[in-house]
Amino acid sequence: LKQYSFYNNKIDHFYNLPQKLTNFNSYIEIENQAWVVKRYQKNQVTQRLKLSHQIQSILFQDGFPCAKLENSRTGATFVEFNGFLYSIHRWINGVHLSPFNNKNNISIHAIKNVAKALGSFHKIVKYKFDSPVSDSMQLSAATIVGGAYDQANSILQRKKFQLSSFDKLRLKIRKNDFDKWIINRLPFILEIAKSIKIACQQKLSLFNEGIVTHNDINWENLIFNEKQKLLAIIDFDNLIVAPMVYEVGAAAIIIAGPDKVKIFQFLDSYSKNSGFHCDIEAIKISMSIKCLHSMLYSFQSYMNGQVDNLKFLSNWCRYLDKCLEFTIKE
Q1: Among 40, 189, 190, 297, which residue carries the largest CB count within 10 Å?
Q2: What number of CA atoms fall less than 13 Å from residue 162's CA on the CB side?
């Protein structure tokens, strides 16, 4: 903190936030102002994170709803201390909404707010960011279309003489309800992923236009006020160059949910604010793929023992499954 001008050698409040998979976050408060401190291993500060900081600075300067990224006294967005690297972001005081929390009746206004913000984000990065990005930072159409099938296979298939993650789950002596649900649903998910990979090989051209994407638009990364006005999109650590239509479709199904009317309202708000038109067939494919990717990533994290809140994860996966069923039916 001594490397930042706002630090006055006194901290009024400090506590650790729920741990993420890739970094450790803490909350600090000094003289009625608050920040989030993110701690990274040195090898985690890759080109993606550096690009993320560059994009966040551009967005904040343009008035986009996101947390301000603080610069050190030397102008750097990362500082080193005791073998770790740190970044500091302004705290956004608000609430998270959740589609599977009965206390939250999410308004169409909130959904449209997210769509408009995503449109603004894409418009800003398309016209105000022109730095070259390496191939390793780009997600191809083929990877998107076939990735879910590869993910499912990695969970189900054995490696030489080792049991697969799925085998270990099946052999677990004391299975909880979520274990049983995964065992029941995973073979079906594999079949859906396989059918999408095969059917979409001739449709890769629908995913041609690449753009810098947030790559993780979900309710945990959105902060609202009590009237459900969007205050900020946060956590740009997964940022990557990917087809624009994939992020739009992925965000539409996660934010609007399995509701055709709300999805079209989301897409309409996005297009009006961004000026970009997205092919509806590519949107449909993207929605299915997003559900598959998120479910499979959640399964793998759970099987690897990286999940603290089982109830939340179980609700999240069941919500994704409901969305997946909707996209298949539609």
Answers
A1: 189
A2: 8
